[in-house]
Write a structure and sequence with these properties.
alpha/beta, Rossmann fold, about 20% strand
């Protein structure tokens, strides 16, 4: 599985990489929204793990740009600031999943689930999220 990790903190990128890395995964990283949009174009990942706050850029704006150009893109929003309003904004931006960084231990299972499924937002149930947008 090709996974792209977008977070402005290198320590968080390393932790996310360790949580989702498998022998058959190919992982690329970047630290901001504009780089995420550019990297998506060349890497074409199966899944993007996107932080909301990316220093001077916005993960939701990058998500909107990517999903506008690639409606099939699967982007999981990761955040320290969990709220129903933010989860709704993530869904409106085109994200297929939403996870609080307080629940990162759930990430490997969610990535495996998303990796074996090509279902979009409408097909995901509410039980998958905080986990997934439902």
């Amino acid at each position: 599985m090709k996974i792209m990790i977008v977070d402005d903190h290198i320590g968080m990128r390393k932790m996310l990489r360790s949580l989702v890395s498998t022998t058959d995964s190919e992982i690329r990283e970047c630290e901001d929204g504009p780089k995420a949009v550019a990297l998506y174009e060349v890497f074409q990942p199966d899944l993007v793990l996107m932080d909301v706050l990316l220093g001077n850029s916005d993960g939701l704006a990058a998500t909107r740009q990517i999903t506008f150009a690639h409606p099939e893109a699967r982007i999981m929003i990761l955040t320290e600031h969990e709220s129903a309003r933010l989860e709704k904004a993530a869904a409106e931006a085109g994200a297929c999943a939403f996870l609080s960084k307080d629940r990162l231990l759930e990430l490997p299972g969610l990535v495996a689930e998303l990796g074996t499924s090509r279902m979009g937002l409408e097909a995901q149930g509410p039980d998958v999220a905080r986990g997934s947008i439902g």
